[in-house]
Amino acid sequence: MFSKYLTWFLLMRIAASEGDDYFIYNGFHGANLSLDGAADITSDGVLRLTNSTDQKGLAFHPIPLRFKSSHGETQSFSTNFVFSILHHYPNLSGCGAIFVISPSKKFLEGKVGKYMGIFNEMNNGNLSNHIAAIELDTVNNPEFNDINNNHVGIDINGLDSIMSAPASYFSNISHRFENLSLISGDLMHIWVEYNGLQNQLNVTLSPIGLPKPDIPLLSKMVDLSSIVLDNMYIGFSSSTKLFQSYHYILGWSFKMNGQAQALDLSRLPKLPRIRRKKKSKLLTIGLPVIILLFTLTAISAIGLILIRKIKFAEILEDWEREFGPHRFSYKDLFTATKGFKEKELLGVGGFGRVYRGVLPASKIEVAVKRVSHESRQGMREFISEIVSLGRLRHRNLVQLLGYCRRKKELLLVYDFMPNGSLDKFLFDHPNSMLTWIQRFRIIKGVASGLLYLHEEWEQVVLHRDIKASNVLLDGEMNGRLGDFGLARLYDHGTDPRTTNMVGTFGYLAPELTRTGKATTSTDVFAFGAFMLEVASGRRPINPKSSEDDVILVEWVSEWWRRGTILAAADPKLGDEYEVEEMELVLKLGLLCSHPLSTIRPSMRQVMQFLDHELISSDGLGASILELGHYKGSDDLLLSYPSSLAQGFESTSSVSGSVLSGGR
To answer: Active-site residues: which are they?
Structure first.
């Protein structure tokens, strides 16, 4: 009895090593899987999902895994498995297989054929499914009008892929993608990896035995937080319809919050042998006739296709292919914005027009900015920076999702902010006044986002155009810093190489007019003007005011010298504000916009002031704020002479070119 138990125990240890959040199967001898339909484990230890026509097979890990942390955040995961798809006829197969993440392991209403045993005609695409899947689609038969067979796709709640690509792998030797046939019967290795912090899903395919390719086949920004529940099952499903097919899994490894353990390929079982049937007359005679008719029909449509291709033609150079996931097709953006209709126009800025759009595949709302440009030497560097900025992740930054190039324009795609820009609430919406609580929260939020850009990301990001019109408000009226069209990146510990003055009058630090060199300190200066703008309800430069009131910084500093700085508060607020907070914002705004860059605080110090850490912990903060650094205002007048200010509207911008001189 003891020897039998020991044998069983050793087999289980060899076949699978399991934990609460990881497991590995090098073959499925003795594997504890939940099987349904035609799925079974062969005597050789191969997981066989289907073995005939008109059937489905499902195999799931029997215990649900926790996909969300105790704080409700979607966790990262990694899995890899080896599979093979065999069939009786050389060019015909069943419908393929999918790797599934689902709240259930039972799909009683899942249909065979193109529904993969999971969905049916009623629930395919329903948001209530809470299913994410990676499909290996091999449908290639007369029952379905589907010519996009032999592809790998990312599916959310249904079988209409949000991203797909023909089966292929990136060769680390030739440095290009090589084609694969999913129905070849060859063993293939696939890796699925999700980064919960970056919402990045990568799918990598390769013939068995080769090192994992350096570049994934699919790479998609997809937020699974609304898809996965706290506990989810993982497994496989496959189905056939008219043609007999075999779908095999030979090894499987999974890990939550880490890299799944590599499979030991030497221990994987061998595939069963099958005999392929000879081609029928349907295939040798009927199929060529069908193909001929289809070809004639296709030729008649070529004219229309060419017209559409010309309409949606884009600029795509070879070097841009490395930025794949961050590039949108012009066709999708054209569809999303209803052809860039005027009724979808959100606003017009110094560098382009911004439209509201809904992406056709994901139904996500976005803002699309159209920027005119000339293709020149700096384009590659510019797009590289755009892609880098797309990796920024902070709750107070507007997410840059990607870009598209077409003819002489560049299209930038951002998260959609339903409440628009802050300046409209400050100046254009008298009946929608922001409370002081909302204003103070917006100031702290933008400061937090700017601290992230300056010190907390992998590179230093200079925004270079901080102003109220570039602060957007989400559905909960939180401030998010956006419009990175002038942003500049450089490594920590090095000097930025900006040499041209760019930005908006009223927010430009004095040293910019002399050197043209942007730094984190020039961003702090602009943030100081922004704080004064939010607190006072006045624009940084107002040419229509009296000569003494044209420049906001001078106007506020004059009230400070008189000992009545609260007189600079927005009169629309009345007495509805915290006196200490208002004084703090006005004085801190003056300190940040000091004409001497060495006096200005860093954004980390600004956050400490706003959080009352410097002031409450010692007297240093209070003493800095009480410095009489505007006596005489001589330096300030040098940077903003009234004659210069009167020559420009408050919305005027300074820049050579978004793509060249300004970068």
So the answer is: 465
